[in-house]
Amino acid sequence: MLVLSGKGGVGKSTVATQLALALRQAGRKVGILDVDLCGPSIPRMFRVQDRDVHQCDSGWVPVFVDQEKSISLMSIGFLLEKPDDAVVWRGPKKNALIKQFVADVAWGDLDFLIVDTPPGTSDEHISTVEALRPYKPLGAILVTTPQEVAVGDVRRELTFCKKTGLRVLGIVENMSGFVCPHCSECTNVFSKGGGEELAKYAGVPFLGSVPLDPQLSQSLEEGRDFIQEFPKSSAFPALVHIAQQVLDSASQRSS
Ligand SMILES: Nc1ncnc2c1ncn2[C@@H]1O[C@H](COP(=O)(O)OP(=O)(O)OP(=O)(O)O)[C@@H](O)[C@H]1O
Ligand code: SF4
Protein backbone atom coordinates (compact mmCIF):
# COMPACT_ATOMS: atom_id res chain seq x y z
CA MET A 1 0.00 0.00 0.00
CA LEU A 2 1.41 3.39 -0.97
CA VAL A 3 0.93 6.69 0.87
CA LEU A 4 1.01 9.57 -1.62
CA SER A 5 0.59 13.34 -1.58
CA GLY A 6 0.89 16.14 -4.09
CA LYS A 7 2.55 18.60 -1.72
CA GLY A 8 5.29 18.17 0.87
CA GLY A 9 4.64 18.49 4.56
CA VAL A 10 0.95 17.53 4.48
CA GLY A 11 1.48 14.53 6.78
CA LYS A 12 2.25 11.54 4.56
CA SER A 13 4.86 10.11 6.92
CA THR A 14 2.59 10.84 9.87
CA VAL A 15 -0.27 8.90 8.28
CA ALA A 16 2.12 6.07 7.32
CA THR A 17 3.52 5.73 10.86
CA GLN A 18 0.15 5.97 12.62
CA LEU A 19 -1.38 3.49 10.20
CA ALA A 20 1.44 1.06 11.03
CA LEU A 21 0.87 1.54 14.78
CA ALA A 22 -2.90 1.11 14.46
CA LEU A 23 -2.50 -2.02 12.31
CA ARG A 24 -0.05 -3.41 14.85
CA GLN A 25 -2.58 -2.78 17.57
CA ALA A 26 -5.05 -4.77 15.48
CA GLY A 27 -2.57 -7.67 15.61
CA ARG A 28 -0.98 -7.27 12.18
CA LYS A 29 2.68 -7.39 11.15
CA VAL A 30 3.65 -4.29 9.23
CA GLY A 31 6.66 -3.12 7.24
CA ILE A 32 7.29 0.49 6.28
CA LEU A 33 9.44 1.20 3.26
CA ASP A 34 10.57 4.82 3.14
CA VAL A 35 11.31 5.69 -0.49
CA ASP A 36 11.64 9.41 0.23
CA LEU A 37 15.32 9.19 -0.70
CA CYS A 38 16.00 12.92 -0.38
CA GLY A 39 14.12 13.49 2.88
CA PRO A 40 13.64 10.24 4.80
CA SER A 41 11.69 10.91 8.00
CA ILE A 42 10.48 7.44 9.05
CA PRO A 43 13.60 6.47 11.11
CA ARG A 44 13.32 9.71 13.10
CA MET A 45 9.59 9.30 13.71
CA PHE A 46 10.28 5.95 15.39
CA ARG A 47 13.43 7.30 17.09
CA VAL A 48 15.60 4.60 15.50
CA GLN A 49 17.66 6.90 13.28
CA ASP A 50 20.92 5.72 14.86
CA ARG A 51 20.40 2.06 13.96
CA ASP A 52 22.20 0.37 11.06
CA VAL A 53 20.91 -2.25 8.69
CA HIS A 54 23.04 -5.29 7.99
CA GLN A 55 23.03 -8.04 5.40
CA CYS A 56 21.97 -11.65 5.87
CA ASP A 57 21.69 -14.53 3.36
CA SER A 58 18.28 -13.33 2.19
CA GLY A 59 19.21 -9.65 1.89
CA TRP A 60 19.12 -6.58 4.12
CA VAL A 61 17.66 -7.11 7.57
CA PRO A 62 15.18 -4.28 8.25
CA VAL A 63 15.22 -2.31 11.49
CA PHE A 64 12.67 -3.63 13.98
CA VAL A 65 10.87 -1.07 16.10
CA ASP A 66 9.90 -3.51 18.85
CA GLN A 67 11.09 -6.79 20.32
CA GLU A 68 8.11 -8.66 18.86
CA LYS A 69 9.32 -7.55 15.41
CA SER A 70 5.78 -6.47 14.52
CA ILE A 71 6.92 -3.25 12.80
CA SER A 72 9.97 -3.35 10.53
CA LEU A 73 11.47 -0.40 8.68
CA MET A 74 13.71 0.16 5.70
CA SER A 75 14.91 3.60 4.71
CA ILE A 76 17.90 5.19 3.05
CA GLY A 77 18.30 6.99 6.37
CA PHE A 78 19.81 3.77 7.78
CA LEU A 79 22.40 3.61 5.00
CA LEU A 80 23.71 7.17 5.21
CA GLU A 81 26.80 7.92 7.30
CA LYS A 82 25.01 10.78 9.01
CA PRO A 83 21.19 10.80 9.20
CA ASP A 84 21.06 14.33 7.75
CA ASP A 85 23.33 13.59 4.76
CA ALA A 86 21.70 14.63 1.51
CA VAL A 87 21.25 12.21 -1.37
CA VAL A 88 21.94 13.85 -4.73
CA TRP A 89 21.32 11.04 -7.18
CA ARG A 90 19.99 10.85 -10.70
CA GLY A 91 16.92 8.77 -11.60
CA PRO A 92 18.61 5.45 -12.56
CA LYS A 93 20.49 5.18 -9.27
CA LYS A 94 17.33 5.95 -7.30
CA ASN A 95 15.40 3.38 -9.33
CA ALA A 96 18.00 0.70 -8.66
CA LEU A 97 17.89 1.32 -4.91
CA ILE A 98 14.09 1.21 -4.80
CA LYS A 99 14.09 -2.12 -6.67
CA GLN A 100 16.58 -3.45 -4.11
CA PHE A 101 14.48 -2.12 -1.24
CA VAL A 102 11.47 -4.05 -2.49
CA ALA A 103 13.18 -7.26 -3.58
CA ASP A 104 16.29 -7.58 -1.39
CA VAL A 105 14.99 -6.81 2.10
CA ALA A 106 14.24 -9.77 4.36
CA TRP A 107 10.78 -8.46 5.26
CA GLY A 108 9.61 -11.85 6.50
CA ASP A 109 5.94 -12.66 6.73
CA LEU A 110 4.22 -9.24 6.60
CA ASP A 111 0.48 -8.56 6.60
CA PHE A 112 1.04 -5.07 5.18
CA LEU A 113 3.89 -3.16 3.57
CA ILE A 114 3.31 0.59 3.75
CA VAL A 115 5.39 2.66 1.35
CA ASP A 116 6.04 6.27 2.35
CA THR A 117 6.78 8.23 -0.83
CA PRO A 118 8.20 11.68 -1.57
CA PRO A 119 5.66 14.37 -2.56
CA GLY A 120 4.51 14.59 -6.18
CA THR A 121 4.83 11.98 -8.89
CA SER A 122 8.51 11.51 -9.68
CA ASP A 123 10.89 8.73 -10.72
CA GLU A 124 10.63 7.27 -7.22
CA HIS A 125 6.88 6.75 -7.60
CA ILE A 126 7.09 5.07 -10.98
CA SER A 127 9.95 2.79 -9.80
CA THR A 128 8.03 1.88 -6.66
CA VAL A 129 4.85 0.99 -8.52
CA GLU A 130 6.85 -1.07 -11.05
CA ALA A 131 8.80 -2.89 -8.33
CA LEU A 132 5.63 -3.65 -6.35
CA ARG A 133 3.52 -4.77 -9.31
CA PRO A 134 4.40 -8.48 -8.96
CA TYR A 135 3.18 -8.33 -5.35
CA LYS A 136 -0.20 -6.87 -6.39
CA PRO A 137 -0.34 -3.81 -4.08
CA LEU A 138 -3.62 -3.20 -2.26
CA GLY A 139 -3.68 0.42 -3.44
CA ALA A 140 -2.81 3.98 -2.53
CA ILE A 141 -3.88 6.36 0.21
CA LEU A 142 -3.78 10.01 -0.86
CA VAL A 143 -3.08 12.56 1.87
CA THR A 144 -4.01 16.23 1.59
CA THR A 145 -4.52 19.22 3.84
CA PRO A 146 -7.82 21.08 3.46
CA GLN A 147 -6.49 24.07 1.50
CA GLU A 148 -7.44 24.44 -2.13
CA VAL A 149 -3.81 24.39 -3.31
CA ALA A 150 -3.01 21.07 -1.58
CA VAL A 151 -6.27 19.53 -2.78
CA GLY A 152 -5.42 20.66 -6.34
CA ASP A 153 -2.13 18.77 -6.15
CA VAL A 154 -3.95 15.59 -5.17
CA ARG A 155 -5.73 15.64 -8.51
CA ARG A 156 -2.36 14.88 -10.14
CA GLU A 157 -1.91 11.93 -7.78
CA LEU A 158 -5.32 10.63 -8.84
CA THR A 159 -4.23 10.83 -12.47
CA PHE A 160 -0.99 9.02 -11.58
CA CYS A 161 -2.94 6.19 -9.94
CA LYS A 162 -5.25 5.92 -12.92
CA LYS A 163 -2.36 5.82 -15.41
CA THR A 164 -0.40 3.22 -13.43
CA GLY A 165 -3.45 1.09 -12.63
CA LEU A 166 -3.08 1.63 -8.88
CA ARG A 167 -6.33 1.39 -6.96
CA VAL A 168 -7.13 4.46 -4.83
CA LEU A 169 -8.06 3.20 -1.35
CA GLY A 170 -9.16 6.71 -0.49
CA ILE A 171 -8.31 10.27 0.47
CA VAL A 172 -7.30 11.44 3.96
CA GLU A 173 -7.69 15.09 4.93
CA ASN A 174 -4.96 15.83 7.48
CA MET A 175 -4.54 18.92 9.70
CA SER A 176 -8.26 19.30 9.38
CA GLY A 177 -9.12 21.72 12.18
CA PHE A 178 -7.85 21.98 15.73
CA VAL A 179 -9.88 20.54 18.58
CA CYS A 180 -9.35 22.62 21.71
CA PRO A 181 -8.19 20.33 24.54
CA HIS A 182 -10.08 22.50 27.06
CA CYS A 183 -13.55 22.89 25.59
CA SER A 184 -13.41 20.43 22.62
CA GLU A 185 -14.51 23.17 20.22
CA CYS A 186 -13.13 22.52 16.71
CA THR A 187 -11.52 25.52 14.97
CA ASN A 188 -10.91 25.18 11.25
CA VAL A 189 -7.42 26.66 11.14
CA PHE A 190 -7.30 26.30 7.37
CA SER A 191 -10.49 25.60 5.46
CA LYS A 192 -12.29 22.28 5.86
CA GLY A 193 -13.86 19.68 3.66
CA GLY A 194 -11.65 20.02 0.56
CA GLY A 195 -10.49 16.40 0.80
CA GLU A 196 -14.02 15.08 1.15
CA GLU A 197 -15.27 17.18 -1.77
CA LEU A 198 -12.44 15.95 -3.97
CA ALA A 199 -13.16 12.34 -3.01
CA LYS A 200 -16.80 12.83 -3.99
CA TYR A 201 -15.85 14.50 -7.25
CA ALA A 202 -13.33 11.75 -8.12
CA GLY A 203 -15.64 8.94 -7.03
CA VAL A 204 -13.13 7.50 -4.52
CA PRO A 205 -13.68 6.76 -0.80
CA PHE A 206 -13.08 9.49 1.76
CA LEU A 207 -11.19 7.81 4.60
CA GLY A 208 -11.53 10.62 7.15
CA SER A 209 -10.31 13.93 8.56
CA VAL A 210 -7.38 13.92 10.99
CA PRO A 211 -7.32 17.09 13.15
CA LEU A 212 -4.18 18.95 14.14
CA ASP A 213 -3.24 17.33 17.41
CA PRO A 214 -0.33 18.55 19.56
CA GLN A 215 -0.13 15.13 21.26
CA LEU A 216 0.37 13.55 17.85
CA SER A 217 3.20 15.88 16.81
CA GLN A 218 4.81 15.49 20.23
CA SER A 219 4.60 11.70 20.03
CA LEU A 220 6.27 11.79 16.62
CA GLU A 221 8.96 14.09 17.96
CA GLU A 222 9.66 11.71 20.84
CA GLY A 223 9.18 8.42 18.93
CA ARG A 224 6.27 7.38 21.15
CA ASP A 225 3.38 5.09 20.29
CA PHE A 226 0.54 7.61 19.93
CA ILE A 227 -2.08 4.94 19.22
CA GLN A 228 -1.27 3.06 22.42
CA GLU A 229 -0.69 6.05 24.66
CA PHE A 230 -3.26 8.65 23.62
CA PRO A 231 -6.59 6.93 22.89
CA LYS A 232 -8.48 9.98 24.21
CA SER A 233 -6.77 12.52 21.98
CA SER A 234 -8.56 14.20 19.08
CA ALA A 235 -6.68 12.53 16.20
CA PHE A 236 -7.02 8.99 17.60
CA PRO A 237 -10.53 8.05 16.33
CA ALA A 238 -9.80 9.24 12.79
CA LEU A 239 -6.51 7.32 12.59
CA VAL A 240 -8.02 4.11 13.92
CA HIS A 241 -10.95 4.49 11.51
CA ILE A 242 -8.53 4.83 8.57
CA ALA A 243 -6.72 1.65 9.67
CA GLN A 244 -10.07 -0.16 9.95
CA GLN A 245 -10.96 0.78 6.39
CA VAL A 246 -7.59 -0.55 5.21
CA LEU A 247 -8.27 -3.82 7.04
CA ASP A 248 -11.72 -3.97 5.42
CA SER A 249 -10.24 -3.40 1.94
CA ALA A 250 -7.67 -6.15 2.53
CA SER A 251 -10.25 -8.64 3.75
CA GLN A 252 -12.62 -7.83 0.86
CA ARG A 253 -9.80 -8.50 -1.57
CA SER A 254 -8.88 -11.84 -0.04
CA SER A 255 -12.49 -13.09 0.17
N1 LIG B 1 -2.55 15.81 12.37
C1 LIG B 1 -1.42 16.36 12.82
N2 LIG B 1 -1.37 16.98 14.03
C2 LIG B 1 -0.23 17.55 14.47
N3 LIG B 1 0.94 17.56 13.78
C3 LIG B 1 0.96 16.94 12.58
C4 LIG B 1 -0.22 16.31 12.04
N4 LIG B 1 0.13 15.77 10.83
C5 LIG B 1 1.42 16.06 10.64
N5 LIG B 1 1.93 16.75 11.68
C6 LIG B 1 3.31 17.28 11.82
O1 LIG B 1 3.60 17.99 10.61
C7 LIG B 1 4.94 17.76 10.20
C8 LIG B 1 4.96 17.25 8.76
O2 LIG B 1 4.38 15.95 8.72
P1 LIG B 1 5.00 14.79 7.85
O3 LIG B 1 6.49 14.73 7.99
O4 LIG B 1 4.21 13.58 8.14
O5 LIG B 1 4.64 15.31 6.38
P2 LIG B 1 5.08 14.70 4.97
O6 LIG B 1 3.95 14.97 4.03
O7 LIG B 1 5.49 13.30 5.12
O8 LIG B 1 6.33 15.59 4.67
P3 LIG B 1 7.46 15.39 3.53
O9 LIG B 1 6.88 15.94 2.30
O10 LIG B 1 8.61 16.18 4.08
O11 LIG B 1 7.75 13.92 3.43
C9 LIG B 1 5.53 16.78 11.20
O12 LIG B 1 6.32 17.50 12.10
C10 LIG B 1 4.34 16.17 11.94
O13 LIG B 1 4.65 15.92 13.27
S1 SF4 C 1 -11.64 26.75 22.08
FE1 SF4 C 1 -12.67 27.14 24.02
S2 SF4 C 1 -11.25 26.60 25.66
FE2 SF4 C 1 -10.13 26.56 23.70
S3 SF4 C 1 -9.20 28.57 23.72
FE3 SF4 C 1 -11.12 28.78 22.59
S4 SF4 C 1 -12.64 29.32 24.11
FE4 SF4 C 1 -10.84 28.66 25.20
Automatic annotation (TrEMBL):
PANTHER family: CYTOSOLIC FE-S CLUSTER ASSEMBLY FACTOR NUBP2, NUCLEOTIDE-BINDING PROTEIN NBP35 YEAST -RELATED
Annotated transmembrane regions: none
Subunit structure: Heterotetramer of 2 NUBP1 and 2 NUBP2 chains. Interacts with KIFC1. Interacts with NUBP1.
Named cofactor requirement(s): [4Fe-4S] cluster
Glycoprotein recorded as keyword: no
Superkingdom of source: Eukaryota
Protein name stated in the entry: NUBP iron-sulfur cluster assembly factor 2, cytosolic
Originating gene: NUBP2
CC cofactor note: Binds 4 [4Fe-4S] clusters per heterotetramer. Contains two stable clusters in the N-termini of NUBP1 and two labile, bridging clusters between subunits of the NUBP1-NUBP2 heterotetramer.
Signal peptide: none
Binding site for [4Fe-4S] cluster: 180, 183
Family: Belongs to the Mrp/NBP35 ATP-binding proteins family. NUBP2/CFD1 subfamily.
Assigned GO CC terms: axoneme; centriole; cytosol; nucleus
GO biological process: iron-sulfur cluster assembly
Keyword terms of this UniProt record: 4Fe-4S, ATP-binding, Cytoplasm, Iron, Iron-sulfur, Metal-binding, Nucleotide-binding
Molecular function in Gene Ontology: 4 iron, 4 sulfur cluster binding; ATP binding; ATP-dependent FeS chaperone activity; metal ion binding
Residues annotated to bind ATP: 6-13
Subcellular location as annotated: Cytoplasm, Cytoskeleton, Cilium axoneme; Cytoplasm, Cytoskeleton, Microtubule organizing center, Centrosome, Centriole
